[in-house]
Predict the 3D structure of the following.
Amino acid sequence: LIHFYKRMSDDDDVKGLLDESGKNSKQVVCIRCKSKILPPGMGSYFETEFQLESMLKEKKGEIERVQKFYKVEDMFDFDNLGFTNTVLNHKFLACADCDLGPIGYHDLQTRHSFLALSRVQYT
């Protein structure tokens, strides 16, 4: 789990993860429990900067800048995803089965969700 998480970063190439239209080409799953999170073709590659709390126990409470996301326009496109309470017009995303997160955020103004590529795995 930690090995994969440290290996995946915002500097990694994403070409093998996207189809010709710029959407996720593979099933997105949780890095801890392998629960399905997002089916292929439902998230569009999107670059923006957002600060998320670290998922690593040894870095608990530290903030990380994340830049590469899958933008999902309808929250019902997800297979299995949990949403936190509202914090400054955002809800944070977590695995619905094991509560690992934050793996992204949901913007309450646009109603779009952003799933961080560096915080998920693929099958």
About this structure: The CA atoms of residues 41 and 60 lie 32 Å apart. The radius of gyration is 13 Å. DSSP finds one helix and nine strands in the chain.
